[in-house]
Amino acid sequence: MDVQDFLNCKVLSKYKSIWIKDGSPLCVNTHNQCLALKKILNEKYNNKVVISYGMRYGERSIKKGLEYLQKENINKLLVLPLYPQSAECTVSSTLDCIGKNLKNWSNVPELRFISGYCLKDIFINTMKENIENYWELYGKSKKLIISYHSLPIRNVIQGDLYPFFCIESTKKLVKSLNLNKDDYILVFQSKIKGQQWVKPCIEDTIIRLAKQGYKQIDIVSPSFSSDCLETLEEIKIHYQQLFRKYSNGNLRYINCLNDTTIGIKLIMNLIEQNIIGWV
């Protein structure tokens, strides 16, 4: 078995640990988001707004999502990457992918593109409501970890503003939650060995808090709009095991917005703000 085969086996094992009846949680959640939005859009705009979706890294691909819209003969296109904090590897690469596919169209639609939305009040208020809903049901822990997907340092040196968006949106979120500096910690997760990544690292933080005597910690990941491998396996399983190894405590994960009522309301708000003058 070579290195690549070994890595593929490790990833496959992780996916198996979170797989649900209908498939990948990310695909299922995204599909359900699309169905919920389609229903609202059809009712509100009398079927004049068509919606589709595509994955930047995976299936259903962006190409397939655009092919569906092309068959609907659209002449205006709003692209909403569901990455709240803009980064080159997510939002910018999505725009590149859209452009590469549209260049093959005979009739290119008028294009509007949303480049991140983490600093918008509607996003902050929705995240606040999601967290407070959890606390109302299960109580509030003494520490909240706010975890973002990490980014290679070289990307930041080259000008990627992703860490800035993470830091600034965290400031707005904790202010809305009335948290002081001792109530929360901002961290970065999902780093890969072999290069330097943005810190502080979530693993080091979890071990430190465990050794400090914390027995219960809440964790939320605002960089994901839908639960996926990084939240369901990495946080709920791997980091939970890490925390229990050093404290025998409980790391409580607060789910992503997924297709919840408040999550769909957020996306609808973003859509409607950006189709003004079109319908």
Automatic annotation (TrEMBL):
Q: What does this protein do?
A: Catalyzes the ferrous insertion into protoporphyrin IX.
Q: Which InterPro entries match?
A: Ferrochelatase, Ferrochelatase_AS, Ferrochelatase_C, Ferrochelatase_N
Which UniProt keywords are present, listed alphabetically?
Cytoplasm, Heme biosynthesis, Iron, Lyase, Membrane, Metal-binding, Mitochondrion, Mitochondrion inner membrane, Porphyrin biosynthesis
Lineage, top ranks: Eukaryota, Sar, Alveolata, Apicomplexa, Aconoidasida
Question: What's this protein's name?
Answer: Ferrochelatase
Organism of origin? Plasmodium falciparum (isolate 7G8)
Q: GO terms for CC?
A: mitochondrial inner membrane
- Tell me yes or no: is Metal-binding among this UniProt entry's keywords: yes
Q: From which domain of life does this come? A: Eukaryota
Work out whether the entry's keyword set contains Transmembrane helix: no
